[in-house]
Amino acid sequence: MIIHITGLLKEIWYLLNEMSPYLLFGFFSAGILHILIPKEKIYKHFAKNDLSGIIKASLFGVPLPLCSCGGIPVAAHLRKEGAGKSSTIAFLTSTPTTGVDSILATYSLLGPLFAIIRPVSAFTAGILSGVVSSLFEKDEHINISENSSCTICDIDTPHTHSLYSKIKKIISYGFFDLVSDIWKWLAIGILVGGILSYFVPTDIVQKYLGNSLISYPLMLVIAIPMYVCATGSIPIAAALILKGMTPGAGLIFLFAGPATNTATLSFVAGKLGKKSLLVYLTTIITTAIAFGLLIDFIWYSYGKDIGFISGKMEMLPQWLKIISSWFLITLVLIAALPKREKEIIYMDIELKVPDITCAHCVKTIKSAISKVNGVKDVGVNIKTKTVKVKGDISKENVVSVIKKSGYSVEEE
Question: Domain extents for the chain?
C-alpha cells in the first residue's frame, strides 16, 4: 500500500514540476493581456455581423485565459453591447478551448505539435461557427455602446494609472484572480493524470484507446458533458497519450472538454437560439475530429516520433521547476482557503443565482449590480449561490442586471 502511495505521489510531483514554470509564466502573461486587451474596449470590433467581425472575435478569443463559465458573461455582454450573433458565437467557441496559460502548459507536457495545433484549431473553430451561423441566421443590428470601464479600477470616466498600479493589477489578476478560477480543475487534472500514469496499464490503453475508431467517439462522449478547464485537461490527456492513446484522441479531449458543458450549452440555446446551439455543437465536434485526424496524420508520417508529443522542459534546471512548484502550491492554497463571504444582514433583496461557479462569476455580478444607482451594498455568496442587495432598487431591476451579465435567476 505504501509503495503505491509513494509511486502515485512521485507521478503527481513529476507532473506538477513539468507544468509549474510554464503555468506561472502563463499566469503573468494573462495578467498583461488583461491590461493590454480589456474586454470592454474590444466590443466595438464585433459589432458587424460579417467575416471581419467573426475573424476578430475568434482572434481575440484565443489568447484570453477564460474558461467556459468565465466566457459566458463576457459573451452575454458582447451581445448586449452590440456584437453580432455570429461574432458572439465565434468568440464563445474560440475562447474556452485555449488561452495563453494553457498554450504554455500544453507545450510543457505535450510538446510543440500540440502547442501549435491547439490554438490553431480554436481559431479555426471560431471562424467556422461564426460563418455557418451567419449563413443560417439573420441577425438584427444593435447599436454599439460607447461606454467602457477601466480594467484596473472599474471606473467609466477617462483617467490614467501609474506603472505601479498596472503591475499590481497584473499580479493580482494573473496570480490570484485567475488561479482562484482554475485551481480546482488544475488540481483535479494533475491528480487524475498521476492516477492514470501510475495505475492504468499501458497495454490496456494501447489496445483500446490506440484505435481511433474507439478512442475518438469515446473522448467525445466523455468530453462534451464534462466540465474541465483548458489547463486542467492537459495532464489527463498527456497521461493517456503517453500510455498509448492516439494523439488525435487526446486533442479531441483537450478541445471538446473545455468548450462544452451543460452551462455553456444552456447559455447558447437560451441567449442565441436553438439553431446557434446546433451550429456550436456541430462545429466543436467537426473541428475536434478534423484536427485530431491531422495531428495523428503528422505523427504517423514522422514514424510516431515521441518528440512531437512529449514535453519540452529539459532546458529548465530542476531547481527552477521545484521552486515554481512550491510557489504554485502556495498560490493554490491561498485560493483554496475559505473566504469570509460578505453577509448583508438587513438586505432588501435576496436572489438565487444557480450559475455562480467561480470567483469570476462573483466579481462580474457584484461589479454589475454595484454600478446601478441606488445600490448601497452587494453580497454574493458562491457557496449558497445567492445575491443579496441593499439599497433603493427594485427586485426586477436587479434581476435584469444579473441576466444581462449572462446569468440566470431562479424564480420563486
Answer: 2-325, 349-404
**Cα–Cα distance for residue pair 215/253, rounded to 1 Å:** 10
pLDDT in tens, 318-352: 888 899 999 999 999 998 887 665 555 556 788 88
In sequence order, what are the residues at sequence separation of 6 or more whose Cβ sits closer than 8 angstroms to the Cβ of residue 27?
Answer: 65, 101, 174, 175, 178, 179
- pLDDT > 50? residue 81: yes
pLDDT tens digits, residue range 152-169?
666 666 667 778 888 888
Q: What is the DSSP string of 57-107?
A: HHHHHTT----HHHHHHHHHHHHHTT--HHHHHHHHHHSTT--HHHHHHHH
56 pLDDT higher than 70: yes
Query: Are 219 and 258 a contacting pair, CB within 8 Å?
Result: no
Residues present in the chain in total: 412
Check: CB of residue 172 under 8 Å from CB of residue 317. Answer: no
CA distance 267 to 357: 14
Q: Record the cell numbers describing residue 237, joined without a space.
A: 490527456
The dihedral formed by the CA atoms of 147, 85, 288 and 269, expressed in degrees to the nearest 10: 110
Contact predicate 28/17, CB 8 Å: no
Which phi and psi angles does 241 have, rounded to 5°?
-65, -45
Per residue in 217-232, pLDDT (tens digit) is: 999 888 887 767 777 7
CA 351 to chain centroid, in Å, comes to: 26
CATH domain 349-404 topology: Alpha-Beta Plaits (3.30.70)
Q: What's the CA gap between 294 and 290, in Å, rounded?
A: 6
